Amino acid sequence: MEKWLSLWSIGQDGTLNDFQSIKNAGFAGIEIWAEQYRSREYLDYAKQVGLKIGIHLPFHDLNLATPDSVVYERTFNVLTEWIEILSQYGGQHATFHGGYAWSSEERDETLVRVKKRLLQLDEKAKQHGIDLLLENLIPDKLNYCHHIASNVEEWLELVHFANIKACLDIGHLAVMGNDLEETIGKLGNSLGAVHLSDNDGKADLHLLPGEGNDLANALYGYLTKYQFAGPVVYEINPYKYSLKDITDHLSKVEENV
Ligand SMILES: [Zn+2]
């Protein structure tokens, strides 16, 4: 199983040397965080040092589930633009958020809309040879908005309906309160990538593995059991850890394998 690094984890001031350190530490690829100031430059750095490339599509101000047709048009255009850029760099996967319903009462009609949009987006992704990966999100505890997808059944339904893949964020899953092994089993062949970070089961803290409830403790065993072959993407809080903290952690893990 390949270990990848989300570039959110390196912050906004990454250098070519940092990309070399990422590669030297044993990461096979990186996931571009589209909202970063220099995400386009980071694509070039990744290519120069020979790291594989995936993307976390942008989601700020871009609600794929919106009832507003102008917002949707904008969202669709920005996402397809990034899908095209990714394919130019030989990228393989695009992780994305399903957006949110404006209120929990609107959940059902919003899901109908989202399904249609998943097909539209996937058509574009397929044209460019990219796999779309829908990520599981933390539910809005007030039930004011409804995030898509923030329960496992809804997530599986959307992934199967559009015949796309899932990005399993194990930190989000812990806050959702679902069991990791059971969820990996349910996802089966639909699992395309894993987002890895640790937390206390209450908040999405993006800690290094072992610094929270040790959510990733049995992860690799489960992934092997269910024959998962995709990337495991470390998504670590850049405001708490340096790149060196992350690469030091990885060398310790690799030593123990
Ligand atoms: Zn995400």
Task: Walk me through the structure.
- The protein has 257 residues and is of the alpha/beta class.
- 42% of the residues lie in helices and 16% in strands.
- The strands form 2 sheets. The chain has an 8-stranded parallel β-barrel with strand order 1-2-3-4-6-8-9-10, surrounded by 5 helices.
- α1 packs across α2.
- The radius of gyration is 17 Å and the shape is globular.
- It starts with a strand and ends with a helix.
- The site of zinc ion has 3 residues, from loops.
Blueprint (SSEs and pairs):
Blueprint (H helix, E strand, L loop, with lengths): L2 E4 L9 H9 L4 E5 L5 H11 L2 E5 L12 H20 L4 E4 L3 E2 L5 H21 L3 E5 L10 E2 L4 H11 L2 E5 H7 L3 H8 L3 E6 L22 H7 L6 E3 L8 H14 L1
Parallel strand pairs: 1-2, 1-10, 2-3, 3-4, 4-6, 6-8, 8-9, 9-10
Antiparallel strand pairs: 5-7
Helix pairs in contact: 1-2
Bound molecules: zinc ion.
Q: Any idea of the CATH topology? A: TIM Barrel
The major pleated sheet works out as: 8 strands, parallel, barrel
Count of helical regions? 9
What is the ordering of alpha helices and beta strands?
Answer: EHEHEHEEHEEHEHHEHEH
Major β-sheet strand ordering: 1-2-3-4-6-8-9-10
Over the alpha carbons, how many angstroms does the gyration radius reach?
A: 17 Å
Q: How many independent structural domains?
A: 1
- Low-pLDDT segments: none
Could you estimate the helical fraction of the residues in percent? 40-55%
